[in-house]
Design brief:
alpha/beta, 8 helices, three-stranded antiparallel beta sheet, Rossmann fold
């Protein structure tokens, strides 16, 4: 199993410093080798996180706790303003690849090295389109905005969720047809 991660960002870094640091790390020979190897994976189970989950209605303490563990909790102390990201159109991230309401990525949102870097959303889209590969998302009601956007962008091909979320998505899908 291969895993990629980045070092913690310095507090109050500039956005450009973070993007430059990630780009420099992506040039490391070991990281390049791991990124190339990801092209051959057949199954991936990325998490979905909302850009700014703090304004989502959470019914339980567990939902609030899960939301607080999002990547925004790393970005905010480093000086990345999640409100500014949202104004730019970022809605959610899947496997740390940020995307907008239509499931489209933006290279200015590459704050992490992960699957398909630097085209993370496109990596998931291509993989999900391959009938021999699986992009499996497991998410519930507190992640619905991210699920909807990923559905529009065709970023996954298997969704595991609970009944109410599935029903809501099916009803919405019928209205869009």
């Amino acid at each position: 199993m291969n895993c990629l991660t980045v070092s913690p960002y310095e507090p109050n870094s500039t956005r450009q410093n973070i993007l430059d640091e990630v780009q420099d790390q992506a040039e490391h020979p070991t990281v390049k080798r791991l990124l190339r190897a990801l092209a051959d994976i057949e199954v991936v189970i990325p998490g979905i996180g909302l850009v700014d989950p703090r304004d989502q209605d959470s019914e339980t303490q567990e939902d609030r706790w899960l939301s607080d563990m999002g990547s925004w909790a790393i970005l905010t102390p480093a000086g990345i303003n999640v409100e500014a990201l949202a104004k730019e159109g970022a809605v959610a991230e899947m496997g740390l690849a940020y995307y907008d309401e239509n499931g489209q990525g933006n290279r200015n949102w590459n704050f992490f090295i992960g699957a398909g870097y630097p085209d993370g959303a496109e990596f998931y889209r291509k993989m999900a389109a391959d009938p021999d590969k699986r992009v499996i998302v497991v998410a519930g009601p507190h992640k619905l905005p991210g699920i909807r956007a990923a559905l529009r962008g065709r970023l996954f091909n298997v969704l595991i969720t609970e009944t109410n979320s599935a029903r809501d998505l099916l009803v919405e899908g019928k209205g869009a047809a």
